[in-house]
């Protein structure tokens, strides 16, 4: 005896068809979403790749091999410094070119700083301050903010000269070598217009909190400080990068391990103990007697 299975009713067939159609639409929508997601991910990946390539090119450009020898900027000397004699003037350039290969590498670096070629003002002459600084150094920025105006007052009064030895110590923490690029910009400004050097010193360390700058920004800042448009090519081309490398190597070989390092009349200061204005004022008074 067989059992006959009843055929689905029209209503049941209609409901089943609707259910299958709904499932097909859901599957199609899911496939469309997956396709859209893959397209977006592909575009995002392409954008990320382009950005990575651009960053790589920038880093490679900024990390390009620096020549061993090069020209010295106005006011430059054999120790890699730039001597400032007033708010608008620099000392005479004492050498025309420098070469890192000419430096004697010490068998052991001094445990404490022993800077070479220090100037000590004689009786009746301005007191000399030698300063090792890095444009990417927060303590240098703090020092400039605290004592920059006083330094300019001493310079204006003819009481001091300042030998700025701008180093690239902190390049290792910067993908764009901002320390060396900033030091190069300082040398470019000195060479272009000595009167713009001290305003640029104030500006570049005053910008520290806003972060590193591109060469175009450095050039814009330099021109605002008083340099001519010609400074742009000097900054972009890294004209004085060999001079900066020379200054940096000299400082390292002489045991200068950090920035800022201050030397007044040949004496290296301990900034944890020595009060900078007190030491300088005492030296100024001593030279006037």
Automatic annotation (TrEMBL):
Domain of life: Bacteria
Keyword presence, Metal-binding: no
SUPFAM superfamilies the UniProt entry points to: Thioredoxin-like
Biased amino acid composition, Basic and acidic residues: 9-22
Pfam families cross-referenced by the UniProt entry: Thioredoxin_4
Family annotation (InterPro entries): Thioredoxin-like_fold, Thioredoxin-like_sf
Keyword line: Membrane, Transmembrane, Transmembrane helix
Region span, Disordered: 1-27
Transmembrane stretches, start-end: 37-59
Signal sequence coordinates: none
Residues of the Thioredoxin-like fold domain: 116-272
UniProt-recorded name of the protein: Thioredoxin
